Amino acid sequence: MEKQKSVAVVGGGLVGAMNACYLSSRGFKVDLYEARQDIRTMEIVRGRSINLALSCRGRQALKKVGLEDQVVKDGIPMYARMIHDLNGTLRPIPYGKSDQYIMSVDRRKLNETLLTAAEERPDVTLHFQHKLISCDLEKGKLSFKMNGGADVEVTTDLIMGNDGAYSAIRKHMVKRPRFNYSQEYIPHGYMELTVPPHNGEFAMAINYLHIWPRNEYMMIALPNQDKSFTLTLFMPFDMFDQIKTGDDVMRFFMEKFPDSVPLIGEESLKETYFKLPPLPLVSVKCSPYHVSDKAVIMGDAAHAMVPFYGQGMNCGFEDCLVFDEIMEELGNDLSKVLPEFSVVRSPDAHAICDLAMYNYIEMRESVNSRWFLMRKKVDACLHAIMPRVFIPLYTMVSFSRIRYHVVINKAKKQDVLVDNSIQALMALTAVGGGYLAAVAISRHFNINSITDWIHNMADQILK
Ligand code: FAD
Ligand code: EGO
Predict the structure, then answer these.
(1) Is the pLDDT of residue 6 over 90?
(2) Going by CA atoms, what residue is nearest to atom 47 of ligand 1?
(3) What residues does the FAD-binding domain cover (predicted)?
(4) Top-level CATH class of 6-72+107-180+284-364?
């Protein structure tokens, strides 16, 4: 029998914890190293987004490690978006059929579920308060700083870099020859606010992704299990900076999101706004994702994206699934699997980074409530007319596992089709209009011969 291979998973966030499960199932001896302390024993967890939208790709990946049901049972389905306009009018638009919905899941709970599942699997050890300080990717050597201050050195067969958007593993890859890398901070930052329960009940309709589309200013809300909603406000940093006092906050919200003020509560709004600074949003693309047969990056470490599609975690989870599929296909041979993973996955990850950025730009420039509703209705209408040929972009991204780069190509083709259909429709209207006008004119002047001639012509064409 072959000697058991070891893997060091760096990062115990969503993707790292999932990878620990997958790699244990593949027979690896897994050591997971996480810089923070064990979130399962923490009182409050500071930082990034409280809840996330889980969709098809993420669920498929959870399913293969047997965790889908457990995660979904704690999630809240969102069957439609609820568009809030400036007057506070609410308009729901379904995502599709009743089986097409996204799920609001608690980030912390999801991470805890994944860590516990990993820990229960054979040959998995979790090491918290281990921060990666340096590494030698070719030799499989890593050194961590323990919370106490001591350094820990380890050598491993495979380094799995899942240490997020500011990845230390990736920083080492950047120094290597012919490594492609780009990153972009967008002008927008985000801030989270809370809508508490009202009289012990959800203060807004529960099974929706609430959206306040206001071009540059965008706000969304996802439901939590405790009957609150987490609101996320996206706006340019310079606008965040211009709001300096409690009165400024109130003026801003009354102007842009008036219906949300009583829901959040005036006092709580003023307090929360100044409690934490807005956080930045970064988009990172790189390639390849591996170093020989020794190291590979996945999740935000490989492809951080702006959150305007709700796909970052879903894509990171799908990475784990795709890697596992390639392991299966190539018989766990790391010298073949790692390069193949880079080749297969980077075009798709780049595609969703681009789609997310494109969505950001489009929403920022032109999407207010009316435009949002119009676009989604046109999409639904076209899909109803041509269910196979026209599938809305959001549907392909969120409710299918069509490869992201294929999604882009399909969307382009659909756009051409729609453009041509509109042109054809306009041409037909012009011809039809001309015909009717000719009939009307000839009738008016009572020129029967011409009327007959036109009718004959029409009969000829229609035959
Ligand atoms: P992370 O979750 O960042 O985990 C990385 C882990 O590595 C952390 O635990 C960190 O402590 C650890 N680490 C870092 N450095 C070191 C080191 N040197 N040594 C050891 N450990 C280290 N995605 C969706 O699919 N749906 C959504 O609705 C959605 N909404 C979002 C909203 C916002 C505002 C943001 C910012 C993101 C959103 N995302 C969403 C994206 C999602 O949060 C990320 O894609 C996902 O968390 C990536 O998981 P990860 O495990 O790769 O990275
Ligand atoms: C015209 C109309 C062009 C994240 C609408 C583009 C994103 C975009 C951030 C929503 C849903 C999960 C999200 C839709 C569009 C999460 C999402 C969407 C936001 C912001 C988000 C939709 C967390 C874009 N999905 N989405 O179709 O409902 O449409 F609004 Cl700011």
Answers:
(1) yes
(2) 313
(3) 6-320
(4) alpha beta
pTM flag (> 0.90): yes
From the alpha carbon of 81, which atom of ligand 2 is closest? 28
d(CA 308, CA 207): 20
Distance between CA 143 and CA 172 in Å, rounded? 13
Å from CA of 13 to ligand 1 middle? 6
Instruction: Identify the H or E element spanning 181.
Output: strand 180-195
**Ligand 2 centroid to residue 309 C-alpha, Å:** 6
The residue whose two tokens read 């020859």 is 177
From the CB of 135, is ligand 1 less than 6 Å away? no
Q: What is the DSSP string of 96-110?
A: SSTT--EEEEEHHHH
- Supply the residue whose CA is at minimum distance from atom 24 of ligand 2: 359
pLDDT in tens, 51-96: 999 999 999 999 999 999 999 999 999 999 999 999 999 999 999 9
User: How many H-runs (helices) and E-runs (strands) does the chain carry?
Assistant: 16, 19
Q: Distance from the CA of 213 to the center of ligand 2, in angstroms?
A: 9
Domain ranges of the chain: 6-72+107-180+284-364, 369-463
